[in-house]
Amino acid sequence: MAPFLVLLVVVFLVPVGGAVWLSFFSDDQPGLGFGPERTVFAGLRSYEAVLSDPTFLAGLGTAALYCLVYIPLMVVAALALGLLLDSGAVRLRRTAQLALFLPHAVPGIIAAIIWLYLYTPGLSPVLDLLAKADLTVDFLGVHLVLPSIVNIAVWSNLGYNVIIFYAALQAVPREVIEAAVVDGAGPVRTALQVKVPLVRSSAVMVMMFTLIWSLQLFTEPMLLSQSTPVVGSRFTPNMYIYDAAFTRNNYGLAAAASVVLLVVTIALSYGLSRWTNRAARAPEEAAR
Amino acid sequence: MSVTPPSLRPRMLGRGAVNAIVGLSALYTLLPVLWLLLAATKDRGALFRSDLLSLGDFSLGDNLSALFSMEGGIYGRWYVNSLLYAVLGALIGAMVSVACGYAFDKYRFRHKEKLFGLVLAGVMVPPTVLALPLYLMASKVGVVNTFWSVFIPVLFNPFGVYLGRIFSQGYVPNEVLEAARVDGAGELASYFRVALRMLGPGVVTVFLFQLTAIWNNFFLPMVMLSDQSLFPVSLGLYVWNSSAVVTPDYYPVVVVGALLAVLPLVAAFVVLQRYWKAGLTAGSVK
């Protein structure tokens, strides 16, 4: 226990505190050491700078758009596949699960490399096939780059979430389902009206973790930025932080941006849990 | 004779559709990996002609030797680094977190639930947020760009503590511990000799999750390390990929390097299948 508490303090509490502390200071001679004599108290100046920086706001916008596309897509797809696996109609269920889960064992950066090559003209068999049908698609262009990143994320995490839903669905008591069948509900109705409400807590958990990780989007766009000018060096909030700290050497700014991102993350996940709690209570009250 | 009753026909149709959807999803997840596998056996020319199925120019061997000789064989170094960070880190991390989860479950102490709340908050705060402050701390202590700057932060695994507590509740009955105490075993002895053996599967699960997380770790090493000989595979391949944009010679090397980097985790997941499923299930019954 003691070693964990040491870790908790050293690599969790101190950094969080440090980030907050640091965000109130400004290093007036950027890039030259980190001596306290050069660091001056700046109050909220770093926050002002961050919040009025259009590139940071654009990054937040990108992350928000990404979440809006990615999270519903992920939850619906994973839940649908979980229901299908649970329906008992699928052959080779274990094999299917393993196949779906396989990408989770592929490190994020390598998933990004694979898909980047599948998006790159000349390297990609997909693009060659499309070219034979006289279609040219620029996956890394202005319009498609975000869907392309969403696709990488879906590919990596779909199986993981399918298995979470599948496990939750397997835990649904069989009597409940039999009762629904006796009442004359078909398989689709049973799935949508009986099973789905019973795995709501899993859905909330999947949404929560997906949200938290989505806001941290870094690896995939960072890799894509090597190959396409559309993804700039401050494409997402995390890339902004990295850019602020290590390209512009402005630690105060980077720390302030980290704190803003952390606050946004906490606020959104808190909001999400409040919203789902209320949504959960509503039908119960209606039933009374 | 072979006429199916009408009521069965739509069901057969539905069954076919269900299998088709699951099959297509499986293809979606498998084909990119298959592409990686095939691409790794091709030389640069074939890679760019993207005729992956021709078996004429099978050059996996050439690619492998190119991989391990590129830039003085630094890839082997990265691989060893990744193994060290991931296996050692996950081993120590899993032992510490499970022991901590056990303590949360079996002992009573002040502010226990508040502390546990803090642990759960740790689950919610993604490690990327911590990377920058950690970098600044490490630079003050002077350990930036060393093995320890990456190794120590990855030991921290609040989700492992959470799982550890659940496993301890499920696997270690209090009566067994009391029996051990009656037999005169001290607290530490009863943990290591009795409880740990029952927690074995839990430790493996936490180990596996942490192994994946560390192996995938990218942001932290990117922030901490500048010395190429300390890089893990993920960061090394990232750097080589940026070289590939300029020098296409790097493409086959990155592809085969990526393939090798995937293998240990896939092997671990296939061999330890029942453990990660147990972990996912435990995690979702919150």
UniProtKB/TrEMBL annotation, chain B:
Listed PROSITE patterns: ABC_TM1
Membrane topology: Multi-pass membrane protein
Cellular location(s): Cell membrane
Primary localization: membrane
Highest taxon in the source lineage: Bacteria
Alphabetical UniProt keywords: Cell membrane, Membrane, Transmembrane, Transmembrane helix, Transport
Residues passing through the membrane, by range: 20-40, 82-104, 116-136, 142-163, 194-215, 250-272
Keyword Oxidoreductase annotated: no
ABC transmembrane type-1 domain: residues covered: 79-272
Family to which this protein belongs: Belongs to the binding-protein-dependent transport system permease family.
Name of the protein in its database record: Carbohydrate ABC transporter permease
Organism: Streptomyces iconiensis
